[in-house]
What does this fold into?
Amino acid sequence: MKMKKVEVVIRKSKFDEVKDAMRKVGIEFITFWDVRGVGKATEERVYRGIVYDTSTIERIMIIFFCREKYLEPAVNAILESAKTGEIGDGKIFISDIVDAYRIRTGERGDKAMYLEGEE
It folds into this structure.
C-alpha cells in the first residue's frame, strides 16, 4: 500500500480546528511545531504608535504520514478547517514515502504505521 508524507503550514489561530478535523477523518498522530515565515505580502501596521512588520507571521507546521486512502479526506479536512479566505491561510505539500520501519518490532511498510488489525 502506498504511503504519503503531508507537510502543512497554517495560521496559528486555526491549529485546534485543523487538529480536530484531522482526527475526525482518521489522522490521529501528527507532529507539529511553531514556525515563522516570510511571504509575498508585506505591510506594516501601527498599533499604539509602534510600527509592526507583518511580513513575518507566526505559523504552525504540521507533518504526518498516512496511507494513500486517507490522503484525500485529510487534505479536504485541512482545506475546510484552515481556510479564512485571506492571504496567508497556508500551504499543503505532499510527498511519496518509499518505506517505513517500526523500530520496536521491525515491521516494514505501511504496517509499521498502524497498530495490528487496523486497515
